Amino acid sequence: MNESSQNRADEGDPELLLTDLASKTQLSNEQERRCAVAARAAYAIDLMRREHESHGIALLPLDLYLRGLAEFAGVSLDEVLTALELSSQDRATAPLSSGVGLLARVARLIGLTADETQTLARMGMSGRS
After folding, report:
1. Domain regions of the chain by residue span
2. Measuring CA to CA, which of 2, 46, 93, 113 is 20 to 30 A from 66?
3. What is the C-alpha radius of gyration for the chain, rounded to an integer number of angstroms?
């Protein structure tokens, strides 16, 4: 890996990290796919966390707030949710497989407090009643 590539890998570029991993290990296609999903999700979560830290919280329903952060960060919230859903299925943690549970998990990962997450989740639920 050259110096420029190493700097990008140090910053969390998932494609370079995966290339480096693949060159050092023997992965099956399924393992490589899972690593790619996890790496892209972790990178997206980090970018969303940075946006949250920069802009703070907006009083919107949780799903809209997270989608807005993902849009500002230039990432796909759906990719993050898919990765978290896969990992929760692997551990057989059924409560996290609900939509609100996955959104709450993303909220926690990007730095929202439990109170902030509950407030935004309630806003979404009250709008649907």
Report:
1. 3-128
2. 93
3. 16
